[in-house]
Specification:
Helices cover about 35% and strands about 20% of the residues. It has five helices and eight strands; from the N terminus they run αααβββββββαβα. By secondary structure, the protein is α+β, with helices and mostly antiparallel strands. It has one domain: Aminopeptidase, CATH 3.40.630. The strands form three sheets. It has a four-stranded mixed sheet with strand order 1-4-8-5, sandwiched between helices. The protein has a two-stranded antiparallel ribbon with strand order 2-3. A two-stranded antiparallel ribbon has the order 6-7.
């Protein structure tokens, strides 16, 4: 890790690979297919527990109403899970937005349900690369940033409907993005 300041080296060390791996393994064990409301509820609560380690106001936000139009023209209501929103230091002059999603493309009856370790140490499982692994990295990075005492502000939005177009979370994402220097 050459080229990093001592503060940056401390932040990288703080993140730690083992806790992230354990988190990804636990999260990948939860089927959170976009239409699996029970699994999404479990995942939202686990994410809320994990992200509660950060300062700020955390809430699980009910989804906005969403509809689908079938090929025959009939309209039906789509149910979605709650979305996680964390706001940290909203008064800070520099604010960023971090987004991710808790849903996967794999419904509860899909055969791809279990995590496995490949021969080269790589893990393979539902949502591991997209996006549960990314959420673990995001959380570790934000914890490391917090350990430095950085004054930046940020919001985290983790939606439950990204795999189907974010229709029930679009307004939340747009609202959270307002006024941010990076998203």
């Amino acid at each position: 890790m050459t080229g990093l300041s001592s503060t940056e080296r401390d932040a990288v060390a703080q993140a730690g690979a083992a806790p992230m791996l354990a988190q990804v393994e636990a999260w990948a064990a939860v089927n959170s297919g976009t239409r699996n409301l029970s699994g999404l509820s479990t995942m939202a609560n686990r994410l809320a527990d994990a992200f509660a380690a950060l300062p700020g106001d955390l809430a699980l936000i009910p989804p906005a109403p969403a509809e689908s139009v079938a090929a025959d023209g009939s309209v039906s209501t789509l149910d979605h899970g709650h979305h996680l929103h964390l706001s940290v230091r909203p008064e800070a002059p520099v604010r960023m937005l971090f987004t991710g999603h808790m849903d996967t493309v794999y419904p509860a009856d899909h055969p791809f349900q279990r995590l496995r370790t490949l021969g080269d140490g790589t893990i393979n499982g539902p949502g591991v690369a997209d996006m549960k692994g990314g959420l673990a990295v995001m959380l570790a990075a934000l914890r490391a940033v917090e350990a430095t005492g950085s004054p930046i502000g940020y919001d985290v939005v983790i939606n439950s409907d990204e795999e189907t177009g974010s229709v029930s979370s679009a307004a939340l994402l747009a609202s959270a993005a307002r006024g941010k220097v990076a998203a």
